[in-house]
Amino acid sequence: TNGVATAGQFGIPTIGFAPGTEDLSHSSKEVLVLHDLLEAVKFYTLFPFSMHEKRQSFLNKSRSLRRKYGS
Question: Cα dihedral sign for 57, 60, 66, 71?
Fold first, then answer.
């Protein structure tokens, strides 16, 4: 959930996402609702597949345009 190194130092697009309350993250007062954990697990599981599908769609459109209009 800490994008300082990836986003701040290296300029890599970064998404911070985690169950729980951000202002309590990594503190002794952090708590977690199990339903929130389940939702996070669903997101973590499906997100890479979603991004892969979007990338494939983008690449297919790019190839199509290159064939149509040349490189």
Answer: positive
Whether residue 6 is predicted with pLDDT greater than 60 in this model: the reply is yes
Q: Is the pTM of this model over 0.90?
A: no
Q: Is 30 helix (H, G, I), strand (E, B) or coil?
A: coil
Look-up: residue for tokens 């800490």?
Answer: 2
> Tokens 């959930």 label which residue?
1
Residue 4 has what DSSP assignment?
Answer: I
Unique residue bearing structure tokens 């499906």: 46
Q: Tally the C-alpha atoms within 13 A of residue 15's C-alpha that lie toward its C-beta.
A: 7
